[in-house]
Design a protein that fits this description.
This protein is of the alpha/beta class. It is built from 11 helices and 15 strands. The protein has helices spanning 5-18, 21-27, 53-65, 79-89, 123-132, 147-160, 174-184, 216-219, 223-238, 329-342, 351-370; strands spanning 44-49, 69-75, 96-97, 113-116, 136-139, 164-166, 193-201, 246-251, 266-272, 278-284, 286-296, 299-304, 314-317, 320-322, 374-375. α6 (147-160) links the parallel β5 and β6 (164-166). The model is unreliable at 1-37 (pLDDT under 50). Bound molecules: nicotinamide-adenine-dinucleotide (NAD).
């Protein structure tokens, strides 16, 4: 969530007072000039791994607007593309890396964070390479295509003593943060009945970059891995980050077998929580849909129009519409994660949360495949 302007200087002061030796090093300006007695803290350097759609149209442009971090390098399979990014974003060509030589990142002091934005099943390999190079890691969602891969990423980051976060931008978006507050403070009582859906029409948006999403080896699954994760996230958020104890699920009908030969076209599932709360959820590659509703005994909250895309979601509660500042999701997330690191605060979206969600996704697939209730060990 974007910090309101009035609180920024206070948090900076507190931050400077509490700054650890490690954070002090991170903040030290690269080329300090004696003429400036109180130089501005330098922005943290981010290297994007994978220059596809999300990097090109969202993260790169967001890194032009961020206050606490900037684009400092890229990892790409195309040197030509890397050079164009270096020109456009004004970083030196020595900060262009390829996937095979990510180890070279270790010697580069411009880069603090490595942000992995490649197809899902490659996240583990690229996150582990970044951790081994001693860089903090942001991993796009889903964190990996198996819990085993999540465990390997977490172990590598622990071993290297680097921070691991997941690109869950909505934790930094004010309307979702308000849903989290309503849940945490039990404003309407605990949310007990939840319903949500998220999807898009793969047919109408079929471009080259959607193809890996239909390849089970690269995507790990269909819309559940891609869009359904947001509904899983919202339900867990409404339960104050508790994981469900069990799930039931069923695959939807395959209306276009020529497109969906490897991954599901749609899937619906139910999450049961320890306090008997229930979330009925759905995700699909055949329909533009994005909404979430949580009901408690004394009120309800609803996100829609759309709930999970990049736009400003409409939040309504039983008390009326909730108007909060509109933010650029990626800017809010990147600055939020940079400040968490600089202030030594725990992240709103740590690796363990990514692992929890992949464990839930695995259970949902097992439930749908086996036609049975599956307990979740998240
Ligand atoms: P994309 O296909 O547009 O880009 C993928 C990039 O990975 C390309 O640059 C491609 O060259 C590179 N790549 C490296 N090795 C590859 C290989 N073996 N096969 C295919 N591509 C390879 O995909 P995208 O939409 O940018 O998604 C990338 C990741 O970002 C995914 O994990 C996705 O879930 C995530 N994502 C997150 C959000 C969000 O809102 N948080 C939005 C979009 C995508």
């Amino acid at each position: 969530m974007k910090t309101p302007p009035s609180t920024i200087s206070v948090s900076r002061r507190r931050f400077l007072a509490q700054m650890s030796a490690a954070a002090a090093l991170l903040l030290a300006p690269r080329r300090s000039r004696a003429v400036n007695p109180s130089p501005k803290p330098r922005k943290l350097g981010v290297a994007l791994v994978g220059l596809g759609g999300y990097s090109t149209y969202e993260l790169g442009p967001a890194l032009r607007l961020t206050e606490h971090c900037r684009l400092a390098g890229v990892v790409t399979g195309s040197r030509k593309k890397g050079r164009k990014w270096a020109r456009d974003y004004a970083f030196p060509e020595e900060n262009i890396f390829d996937y095979e030589t990510m180890g070279r990142l270790a010697g580069n002091p411009d880069i603090d964070f490595v942000y992995v934005v490649t197809p899902n099943s490659l996240h583990a390999e690229h996150c582990i390479a970044a951790a081994k190079a001693g860089k903090h890691v942001i991993c796009e969602k889903p964190m990996a295509t198996s819990v085993a891969d999540c465990d390997s990423i977490i172990a590598a980051c622990r071993k290297a003593a680097v921070r691991l976060t997941v690109g869950y931008r909505l934790h930094y978006e004010p309307h979702h943060a308000e849903l989290a507050r309503l849940a945490r403070e039990k404003v309407f009582g605990p949310f007990m009945r939840m319903k949500g859906a998220n999807g898009f029409d793969m047919d109408s948006s079929a471009t080259a970059r959607t193809f890996w999403r239909l390849d089970k080896k690269l995507a790990g699954g269909g819309p559940l891995m891609d869009m359904g994760v947001y509904v899983v996230q919202a339900a867990c958020m409404a339960k104050v980050e508790a994981a469900p104890v069990a799930v039931t699920a069923r695959f939807g009908p395959v209306t276009r077998p020529e497109v969906f030969s490897e991954v599901e076209e749609s899937i619906e599932w139910t999450m049961e929580f320890a306090d008997r709360a229930v979330a009925n959820c759905r995700t699909t590659y055949t329909e533009q849909v994005s909404n979430f509703r949580a009901e408690a005994d004394h009120g309800w909250a609803q996100l829609e129009d759309p709930a999970f895309y990049y736009d400003e979601p409409l939040l309504t509660t039983s008390q009326g519409p909730v108007k909060l500042p509109r933010v650029n999701h990626q800017v809010a997330q990147l600055d939020g994660m940079a400040m968490e690191l600089l202030e030594g605060r725990p992240s709103l979206a740590p690796g363990e949360m990514g692992r929890r969600d992949v464990a839930i996704v695995e259970a949902i697939y097992a439930a749908a495949a086996g036609g049975r209730r599956v307990e979740v060990s998240a």
